[in-house]
Amino acid sequence: MNRQNSANGLALTGAYLLIMICQVMIPRYFHNGPAYLICTLVWLLGALAMLLLNRKFPFENPVDSPGKCTQASHEAILIGLGLVATLAAQLLLTSFEVSILHQPSGSENTNMFIEIIHRYPYYFLCPVIAAPITEELVFRKFFFGNFSSVLPKLACALISSTVFSMCHGDGHFIVYAAIGLILCYVYERSGKIRTGMIVHMLMNLTVMLISL
Question: What is the model's pTM?
Answer without folding.
Answer: 0.93
